[in-house]
Amino acid sequence: MTDKHIDFRINYKTLKIFDEYNTKDFVYPIVLSSPHSGKDFPAEFLKNSCLSKAELRSSEDGFVDDIILGASQAGIPMIAMNLPRTFIDVNRDKIELDNSMYFDAPQSPSNAIGSRRCRVGLGVVHRIVAQNKPIYKGLLSFAEVQERIKFAYDPYHKRLKQLIDKCQKKFGFCLLVDCHSMPSKICNIMNETKPVEFCISNLFDESCPAEISEFVGQQLSTKGYRVEFNRPYAGAFITFNYCQPRKNIFTLQIEMNRSLYMDENVYKKNANFQSVSSNVCESLIALGKFLLDFKK
Q1: How much is the pLDDT for 267?
Q2: Domain boundaries, the chain
Q3: CATH 2.40.240.50: does it fit domain 5-294?
Q4: Alpha-carbon torsion, ordered 63, 68, 72, 78, to 10 deg
């Protein structure tokens, strides 16, 4: 990265940060989150990135919000981020900021690099996309990034927390299901006969009771999918941050192999999209019914 200063501002009044669905009538004690499916790129961001939109979309959980929409329509509230992950990653702690990316970062120990993800360029503001391609040809303004957090990151988490609290208040129990997709290359690296198709992540049985994870896995397995638990992913910030077992608030992360439902090279749904969506939604609705009895 060069020493060039990249200083721009986003007009957030023109942006819809997230969409929410069926957030008034909760039928089941579940909240759905799709934090990485956003593809509404701010014009100012695109202008100041050195990558094409297609390259920036390589980090996107393509169409995950569409996949789970049917479950939301059946009575499960859902929130989906509209802004892309390469602009702001709401599945990171907002302190995960890499000061080496900014020309005006405050010199304070409290603003030091916050995690391994920061060190590899995947903090709350990404430095790279796939294949280590840099997003910017210079240093960003720390003040501008603070606006991303204030006007995009914080509103998403504020609304997500409201939905979780509302669910817990109604049912005395809430399961947050955080929905993602996996690049097929990652699913193939284990050198096994059949690639991983779904990964059920629960921080190694810390974020929800094992019975819940196993139920979801069984639902998908009976539909013919290969399911793994906590590999290749065990969960990330949202799974960890919202888990409060003492309040009967639990979390679960679901990762779907992108090759199941889309052409990863051109970012389009494939012929199997509808059947995959139906299978996932049926599994989530069955989970909702299971939880109505489980929480008793």
Answers
A1: 94
A2: 5-294
A3: no
A4: -60
pTM of the full structure: 0.94
Cα 79 off chain centre by: 11
What's the mean pLDDT when you consider all of the chain? Answer: 93
User: Is the alpha carbon torsion for 124, 133, 239, 269 positive or negative?
Assistant: positive
pLDDT in the model for residue 210: 94
Cis peptide, bond prior to residue 232, ω within 30 of zero: yes
CB 199 within 8 A of CB 229: yes
SS3 141: coil
Q: pLDDT tens for residues 22-57?
A: 999 899 999 999 999 999 999 999 999 999 999 999
Give the DSSP H or E segment for 69.
Answer: helix 64-73
Provide the token pair at 270.
Answer: 């494939």
Rounded to 5°, the CA angle 223-225-230 comes to: 125
Which two tokens mark 115?
């995690």
How far is the CA of 160 from the CAs of 18, 86, 235, in angstroms?
10, 20, 17
